[in-house]
């Protein structure tokens, strides 16, 4: 049986943690804090979009305004003119 994805075990996580400490050092708490803020903002944005979709689906469509009766237009009838022939 072949495993298609590699899942790190406990030892690998420890190595990853040590490498993260070496790279980030003192900034690691700051990086974690900013990552947490980013996740919170992302979730807040998703919730806002979800609320907007729910509100839009719950709103009843507004009926179009009633049509106003049209006033009869006066018919203007013009007679076609024929060109006069001169002889």
The whole-angstrom Rg is: 37 Å
Run of helices and strands: HH
Overall mean pLDDT score?
80
C-alpha end-to-end distance: 108 Å
Low-pLDDT segments: none
Shape: elongated
Number of helices: 2
The fraction of residues in strands falls at under 5%
Number of E-state strands? 0
Note the topology.
Blueprint: H1 10-24, H2 28-58
Structure keywords:
87 residues, mainly alpha
Structure description:
- Helices cover 53% and strands 0% of the residues.
- The chain has two helices and no strands.
- The radius of gyration is 37 Å and the shape is elongated.
- The model has no long low-confidence stretch (mean pLDDT 80).
- It is mostly helical and 87 residues long.
- The longest helix has 31 residues, at 28-58.
- It has a domain at 10-58.
- The N and C termini lie far apart (108 Å).
- It has helices at 10-24, 28-58.
How do you describe this structure in short?
This protein has 87 residues and is an all-alpha fold.
């Amino acid at each position: 049986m072949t495993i298609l994805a590699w899942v790190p075990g406990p030892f690998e996580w420890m190595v990853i943690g040590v490498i993260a400490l070496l790279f980030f050092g003192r900034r690691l708490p700051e990086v974690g804090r900013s990552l947490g803020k980013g996740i919170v903002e992302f979730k807040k944005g998703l919730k806002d979009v979800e609320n907007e979709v729910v509100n839009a689906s719950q709103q009843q469509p507004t009926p179009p305004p009633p049509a106003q009766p049209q006033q009869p237009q006066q018919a203007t009838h013009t007679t076609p003119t024929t060109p006069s022939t001169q002889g």
